[in-house]
Amino acid sequence: MGASAVADVADVAERFREQYGAEPEGVWAAPGRVNLIGEHTDYNDGFVMPFALPHTTIAAVSRRTDGVLRLHSADVEGGAVELTLDSLAPESDRHWTAYPAGVVWALREVGHTAITGADVHLASTVPTGAGLSSSAALEVVVALALNDLYELGLRGWQLARLCQRAENVYVGAPTGIMDQTASACCEAGHALFLDTRDLSQRQIPFDLAAEGMRLLVVDTRVKHAHSDGEYGKRRAGCEKGAALLGVDALRDVPYDGLDAALARLGDEEEVRRLVRHIVTENERVERVVSLLQAGDTRAIGPVLVEGHASLRDDFRISCPELDLVVDTALGAGAVGARMTGGGFGGSAIVLIEAADEETVTKAVEEAFATAGFTAPRVFAAVPAAGARRLM
Ligand code: ADP
Ligand code: MG
């Protein structure tokens, strides 16, 4: 992972030449993402609202005709890993190569057997494991490259679906559709309002700079070990809630029917909390959409704070580091703040007036030092472009 947000295209192409001894046929980029609002709603058929980061994973790629896939990442020690397409099988690979190999597998599995191999060299500026979706950036950039080179004619949302399948089935990580769709479909200066039930999407203007505002991403640098199991538990709890309420997904519980739904859940306290978060979170996404469309960016601040409280108290996936970011930032004058991503670590987002950037950043860094936490990584995020061809 490089220091700057944007990896150097020429450098990636040069490394490809060094690795494989020929020019790449093309170079593509796919970004990481931050979710503005709509957390854990994506496996409940609900709403999410991510935007793309300027941080991207870049891939230089060429086709092969001999059924071989060669993968190399500048961010991983060692030489290229060579796989044969016929040997690709779900959950057969516990390394990073499972993400790009899974994409090739998923494409071929739905019938794109015209894919006869590839040489891939990757380099990324997306922090890994920070909840900013380096995994989706990696999948999407490979999918887009193969889509272009093999002229598969797939749209962004279709590539996103195949990438999700790669991660769920091939890698074996149960994730929703948000990350891949964000990486594939976001547009600069916008957040993506995505309905995860039918995958319909709308680009919502989110031009912070024009309003004298900034959005800070604070990577806490922690990932608490139990996070995968806890994700599974939340997911199962939401499914139980939907079953008890007789709906396909919690998305179908209307906001104005929440009290009645909670009453029906009786003494299922754990499930009640999960249901309350999902139903109120969907409503918060809709509120943020309305506010941004009305040009009232500052007014989304309190909605973000409500979202954090719901994740902390009802969904219970925050952690001391994330809470400290939010509390400290708000105390230092931030307009809004919340944890973002799966929880138990990863990153928080902080909405501020541009003039407050230094004050708020310092306050958070000092609070972490005082608490004895690892120093956080803080950067300002500009809503950037989704996956694209660079060369
Ligand atoms: P996140 O998506 O939040 O960054 P994940 O655990 O879902 O975290 O995905 C991170 C994993 O994706 C890494 O451990 C690695 O296996 C793989 N990965 C991401 N980016 C790269 C890269 N540039 N090179 C090699 N592997 C990568
Ligand atoms: Mg991921």
From TrEMBL:
Gene Ontology cellular component terms for the protein in this record: cytosol
GO-annotated molecular function: ATP binding; galactokinase activity; magnesium ion binding
Coiled coil residues, start to end: none
UniProt keyword Transferase, yes or no: yes
Localization, UniProt: Cytoplasm
Binding residues annotated for Mg(2+), in chain numbering: S135, E167
Residues binding substrate, per UniProt: E39, H40, T41, D42, Y231
Pfam assignment, any one: GHMP_kinases_N
Signal peptide interval: none
Main enzyme class: transferase
PROSITE patterns to which the protein is assigned, alphabetical: GALACTOKINASE (PS00106), GHMP_KINASES_ATP (PS00627)
Catalytic activity line of the entry: alpha-D-galactose + ATP = alpha-D-galactose 1-phosphate + ADP + H(+)
E.C. code: 2.7.1.6
Active-site annotation: D179 (proton acceptor)
Residues of the site described as Transition state stabilizer: R33
Task of the protein: Catalyzes the transfer of the gamma-phosphate of ATP to D-galactose to form alpha-D-galactose-1-phosphate (Gal-1-P).
Record-stated family: Belongs to the GHMP kinase family. GalK subfamily.
Protein name per its UniProtKB record: Galactokinase
